[in-house]
Structures are given as structure tokens and as C-alpha cells.
């Protein structure tokens, strides 16, 4: 009786074990398949994002420089590199003041090497921004405005110490988290401030929070702003046409609780952008 019970138990145990092995054998491949499908979807998602970045940057460069080749180069750079997907075609065409960028990306099928890769195509369009001509002067040297990143603006001061970068930070005076819309370049009082590019002065005087503020419009949506100088050390007036490198003011500490520095801002199409991307890199490195 005793041995019969234990034998039954063994049988039950064995059959249980058998069943779970079968379940496992069915479920494991399903899980692997699901993981592969998910991985494939993630890859496709990243490929689409990279393609969009390439389209956007190529369109931006073409619209602002009119240079198809350069736009294609920048687009390819924005796409980046991957062993799983490739930018098969990126074409930039400018016709009748309109930019058209088309891109095609191929994404490898990770679990079926012999299968044809997935492909994704899209296009972007943008109007060519009119070259800024005449009295304002050209931005860039080749006769076209170069509003791309990578050091087109001249240094706003000669030698400085970067005391605060662009982006979110805890405000040194209020202690609150706040977006810092410019780059702080520490330098002694009256250190010359230079126009980062040729343009027209659209503002030169008192401004809340800035102490005093100089704004220079360079055309094509590019504006630079200089703050914290004393009223008496502003050497330009609204309407003045200034050249790149012109001595426009002296460093001060008006309107701030910290030491003497230039608060330098770059606006592109009405949006504050990181000045470090636009100012000549060899100059920004001095911090
Ligand atoms: Zn600042």
C-alpha cells in the first residue's frame, strides 16, 4: 500500500515534468521570435529617426546656404553610421527657390539574412532663404549666409573664462532651476566686446534682467545679443551698421549678482540656440 502510493506520486511527478518541458519547448521559441520582432521594430524606429534627422539637417543647410553638395554631406553626417541600416540615397535638389530633399534607408532583417532589407523613404521641402545682401553684409565668405553649426561667428571677446554654459541650471541668485539662454564669458570690466558678425544694431540700452543689452540682427533669422555692460560702455546705437569684429561695448556686471562677464546669446529664427555651436570652436575652447 505504501509503495503503491509512492509509485503513484512518482508517476504524477513525471507526467508534470513532461508537460512543463513541452510547454517550455513551445514557449521558448515564441519568446525568441517575439524578442527578434521587437528588436527589428526598434531598429526600424531608430532608422526612421536617423532618416528624419538627415532630411531635416540637409533641408536646413540647403535652405540657408544654397549648396546642394554641402547639404548632402551634413545630412549624411546627421544620419550617422550603423551596421544594421544604411542611408541608401540622400538627394538634395534646389529648383525655383525650393529645396527638396529625398532619402531612402534600408534596414537589415536581423533574423533572415537572405530576406530583402526593409526600406523607408521620405522627403522634406523647404523654401530657400533669400541671401542677405546689401548694407548688412553677407554672413560667411562665399557670398551666401552660412547659418550652420561649426564656428561661423567670430569671438565676442578675445580671451575669457566660460563661467556658465547654455541650458538649464540653478540660477546663482534666485536658486531656481531656469533655462540659461546664453553663454557667460567671464572677463575683466571693460574688456572689449566685438560684434560676432556684420549686421544692424536693433537694440542698445536698458533691458530687464540683462542690465543693458545690445542686439544685432545679421539677417536670415540670425541674431546675436550681448548683455550686462554699463550704459556708458555701449559704443553703438540702434540703426548702426556694424562689421564683424567691431568693438561695440565693454564688459560689465550690470543687472547681475555675479562678477563681470559678457552674457552672449545667439538666436536663430526666434529661438535661443547654444552659442558654443556657432562661435568659432578654437575660441570657445578657452575656458
Ligand atoms: Zn548669462
TrEMBL record:
Residues 18-60 form the TadE-like domain. InterPro entries: Cell_wall_metabolism_enzyme, Dup_hybrid_motif, M23ase_b-sheet_dom, TadE-like_dom. Pfam families: Peptidase_M23, TadE. This is M23 family metallopeptidase. Keywords: Signal. Gene3D superfamilies: Glucose Permease (Domain IIA). One of its GO terms (molecular function) is metalloendopeptidase activity. Residues 179-275 form the M23ase beta-sheet core domain.
